[in-house]
Structure formats: C-alpha cells, structure tokens
Design goal:
- Keywords: Calcium, Cell adhesion, Disulfide bond, Extracellular matrix, Glycoprotein, Immunity, Innate immunity, Metal-binding, Secreted, Signal.
- By secondary structure, this protein is α+β, with helices and mostly antiparallel strands.
- The chain is built from 3 helices and 16 strands.
- The protein starts with a helix and ends in a 5-residue tail after the last strand.
Length: about 350
C-alpha cells in the first residue's frame, strides 16, 4: 500500500473538513462576549506566524529515550483561534473524546467534529490551523493564522510520539493586549497526560484508564513512579520539551495553512531562532534488588563463600550517579556437612 498516497488523502480530507468548519463559523451570528475577561478592542485583524520547535533530545531526556520503532517525533499540530468561551483542552479537566483520540492515536476526526459543533453552537471558533508532523524530536514546524478582536485566543495540541496519551500544547493564549496586538509571544512547552491511558513509558501498551482521569502536567516527580519515562527525582523541574513562538506579521489573504508533507529535519536548526544552550539532564544508574544468596561453596568443615548479584536496570548518562557493585560475597558454613 502506498503510504504517501494515503497520507495525502487523509490531509486532503482534513483540509476540506476544516474549510467546512470555517464556513459554518463565519456564517454564524456572534454570541455575547463574557464580561469577566479582558476585552479586546483592536480594530483590525492580525496575521501571525507560528513556529513550533521540538527540544526533545536524548541529552535533555535520556531516560528511555525512544530511538526506534518509532523514534522520538511529533505529530502534526492542530489548533484553533477562538473566543474566551471555548477551550480545546484544559489542565485539571477531563479530555474530550476528540482530544483522547488525538493524544492516544493521532486521529483528528472527532476533534474536528467537536470544533465544528462549537462553531455552530456558541460561534466561538474563528479559524483552524495545522502544521505538519516533525520526523524527529528536535525539528520545527511552521504555519500562519489570523485572529480578530472577537476571537483573539489561540489553542493547539501536538502529540508526543511514541507515548500512551501524552501531548504538548497551549490553552487559550490571548494575543490581544487592549487595543493592539502583541508583537511576539514565546512559550516553553511541557508534557501533559490526557488522563485516558495509564501507561508509564513511551512504549507502554494500551492500558485504558478507568475511570478516566483529568488532564495533568507531567513533571520530574509526577507521576511519582520510578518506571515513568519523565521521572527524574534529582530535578526540581523538567526542562522544556518544546517551545512555540508566535510572531505578528503583515496581513495576507491566507487564513489556513495545511502543509501536506511532514518535515524531514531531525536536527536542531542552527539559525538565530534557537538561542537556548543544549541541556544535559543527569540520569542516575538504577539497579535491581539483590538476588537471594547462593549456595555455600567450600570444603566440609571449613568456612566457604556464597554470592549474590543484581543487574542494571538503567545505565547512567550525562554525569549521573555511577552504578554500584553488582556482586557481593560473604563467608558461610555449609549445613548438613558429612
């Protein structure tokens, strides 16, 4: 089967669905704006460029870093521009079915249907944007989008691949500041758990969370299980796994940007857009518990020696604590010696 052809077919179908959503949203009457949020009074629309930069390196995240089947990478990015009364996803709230499907499998159909329904019901969605997948943990993806006073917020989601149901994104970033648009916004991104799959590692098999949990941010100490791929007890905070830069540009007629092909770069760009120094997160050695003591070996009537062993679960990296000794011996005396 031609996978490239299938990818194009999927992208084309998604494109037509997004266009349909936009038509519905544009043709709807506006609902009253909530009075408990700052009012945007900018008189003109604004065009922005979005640059997503993956910072998921083996140096920064050495524990169980996925190098094959599949290697570390990012899904396509799906986002919306909207009013303050809409949320694609929220921390400490339950993920919708659409967010669950996208976070677990990268399937966007239900998520797009939810966006369409929000546009019809409360006229809260103005535009939809997409950026291509990144084949690698440290590549970039780009897109452009438009906002206006009634719909000045941006939300998006991108799946961490591989993972049980982990993603990065932003929830309701307001690009308006009173009567004008912000020139540039840069946000560091950290991993979130959608609360729908209970896997602890990047490559965990499907293990549905019953009952469903809330969306939570993954930290260096939460979930507090040593098997968790992001568990680094020596760190106070995880380093950012990605960042997004939103830059105001001159207006164009293009509202939706839907590149059909994934980007192929899996190296950090070397231009001025990346000023951060590379992070080396120390990873300590982890070893198993000791085995039981072995048989006592020695001549009858004399003291003998017995051994026990343990094995390495996780090798150290980036100047982490070295592995302790893996074998011990002690003196013993044989029982039932004749």
């Amino acid at each position: 089967m031609d996978t490239t052809k299938n990818a194009l077919t999927f992208s084309e179908a998604l494109y037509h669905l997004l266009v349909m959503v936009l038509v519905v949203a544009r043709g709807s009457q506006s609902m009253p704006v909530p009075t408990d949020v700052p009012m945007c009074t900018a008189s003109e629309t604004a065009q922005y460029s979005l640059t997503f930069t993956g910072k998921w390196t083996q140096a920064a995240f050495p524990k169980q870093y996925p190098v094959y089947r599949p290697p570390a990478q990012w899904s396509n990015l799906i986002g919306v521009t909207h009013s303050s009364d809409y949320h694609m996803w929220q921390s400490n709230e339950f993920a919708s079915n659409g967010v669950r499907d996208f976070a677990e499998k990268g399937e966007a159909w239900n998520l797009m249907k939810e966006v369409e329904m929000a546009g019809e019901r409360i006229q809260s969605v103005y535009g939809i944007l997409s950026a291509p997948a990144v084949v690698g943990g440290t590549g970039q993806m780009h897109t452009e989008f438009e906002v206006f006073a009634r719909h000045s917020y941006l939300s998006f989601i991108a799946r961490i691949i591989p993972s049980p149901d982990w993603f990065v994104g932003v929830d309701s970033v307001d690009l308006c500041d009173g009567d004008h648009w912000k020139e540039k916004v840069t946000l560091e991104l950290f991993p979130y758990d959608a609360g729908t799959d209970s896997g602890f590692t990047f490559s965990s098999p499907n293990f549905e969370t019953i009952p469903q949990d809330r969306v939570t941010q993954i930290t260096s100490s939460f979930p507090s299980h040593p098997a968790n791929s992001f568990f680094y007890p020596r760190l106070k905070h995880l380093p950012p796994i990605a960042k997004v830069t939103l830059t105001k540009i001159k207006k164009t007629n293009q509202i939706i940007s839907l590149p059909l092909e994934p980007t192929q770069s899996n190296l950090l760009p070397t231009g001025n857009e990346i000023e951060d120094t590379l992070i080396n997160t120390p990873l300590d050695c982890e070893v198993s518990v000791w085995s039981p003591w072995g048989l006592c070996k020695g001549k009858c009537g004399d003291s003998g020696v017995q051994h026990r062993t343990r094995y390495v679960i996780m090798h150290p990296a980036n100047n982490g604590v070295a592995c302790p000794q893996l074998e011990e011996e002690r003196k013993c005396f044989q029982d039932n010696c004749l």
